[in-house]
């Protein structure tokens, strides 16, 4: 009953009505979720267009329903722009990035740029991000695409930690959160772990956190110990 030329006004009225009767809730997000999943295709299409043109609303919606990101943005060109300009403002940044990877929508030539943007944002504003929704498959593809290698190369190496050891003591959540979503421990990580905490200057708070993590996470400890045995490596006293 709504023609295409009236769609934006119609949807804007729905949006405003939801906010009027539920100003501090998420009613508007739920209503639009129902529309783009259950209404006729024509209605879904003009609703998606409306949502994509409302920046703040789009942001709130994807924070609530990150699985719908590919319904609203799916071209490689738009995804490239989104990753460079917007993805780091989302608490579910890594969930969204992994979703793009799983859908094979990030070209290999853009991969390093995407990783660099995300890992730097995570390091700068770690408390802004939520890793709780990341699935095992997402962890695996992030690992395979090089996210954890980028982490080690940029922030988890002796050159970086000896130069920034004081600052790192105030940013240990970034390290623990990143390590906690590693799908596996590899030799590169263990080698750097040993080198970092064998130096004279290292982040003491991070050392305490990683030592606690080592003793309280049996899978992590088992993998680290196995890599040490297989490669003739020895963990320093500072970490065990």
Report on this structure.
The chain has 240 residues and is mostly helical. The chain is built from 16 helices and no strands. The chain has helices at 7-21, 27-38, 41-52, 55-64, 69-72, 76-85, 93-102, 108-124, 136-145, 147-154, 158-163, 165-168, 172-180, 187-196, 204-216, 218-231. Helix 1 (7-21) packs antiparallel against helix 2 (27-38), helix 2 crosses helix 3 (41-52) and helix 8 (108-124) packs across helix 10. It is elongated. The termini are far apart. The model has no long low-confidence stretch (mean pLDDT 94).
Q: What is the radius of gyration computed over CA atoms, rounded to a whole number of angstroms? A: 22 Å
How many strand units?
0
Low-confidence stretches: none
Structural class: mainly alpha
Average residue-wise pLDDT:
94
| Proportion of helical residues | 55-70%
Listing every helix as H and every strand as E from the N terminus to the C terminus, the arrangement reads: HHHHHHHHHHHHHHHH
Total helical elements? 16
Largest sheet: none
- Residue share in β-strands: under 5%
Distance, first to last CA: 69 Å
Q: What form results from the Cα inertia axes?
A: elongated
In short:
With 240 residues, this protein is mainly α. It has helices at 7-21, 27-38, 41-52, 55-64, 69-72, 76-85, 93-102, 108-124, 136-145, 147-154, 158-163, 165-168, 172-180, 187-196, 204-216, 218-231.
């Amino acid at each position: 009953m709504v023609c295409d030329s009236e769609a934006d006004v119609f949807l804007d009225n729905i949006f405003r009505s939801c906010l009027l009767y539920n100003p501090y809730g998420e009613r508007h997000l739920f209503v639009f979720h129902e529309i783009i999943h259950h209404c006729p295709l024509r209605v879904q299409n003009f609703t998606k267009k409306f949502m994509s043109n409302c920046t703040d609303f789009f942001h709130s919606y994807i924070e609530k329903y990150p699985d719908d990101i590919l319904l609203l943005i799916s071209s490689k060109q738009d995804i490239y722009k989104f990753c460079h300009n917007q993805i780091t403002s989302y608490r579910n940044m890594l969930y969204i990035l992994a979703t793009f990877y799983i859908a094979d929508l990030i070209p290999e030539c853009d991969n390093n740029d995407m990783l660099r943007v995300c890992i730097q944002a995570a390091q700068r504003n770690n408390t802004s991000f939520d890793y709780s929704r990341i699935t095992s498959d997402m962890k695996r593809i992030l690992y395979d695409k090089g996210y954890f290698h980028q982490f080690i190369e940029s922030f988890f190496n002796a050159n970086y930690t000896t130069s920034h050891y004081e600052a790192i003591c105030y940013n240990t959540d970034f390290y623990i959160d990143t390590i906690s979503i590693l799908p596996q421990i590899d030799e590169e990580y263990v080698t750097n772990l040993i080198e970092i905490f064998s130096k004279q200057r290292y982040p003491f708070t991070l050392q305490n956190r990683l030592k606690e993590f080592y003793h309280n996470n049996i899978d992590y400890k088992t993998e680290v110990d196995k890599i040490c045995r297989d490669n003739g490596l020895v963990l320093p006293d500072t970490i065990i």
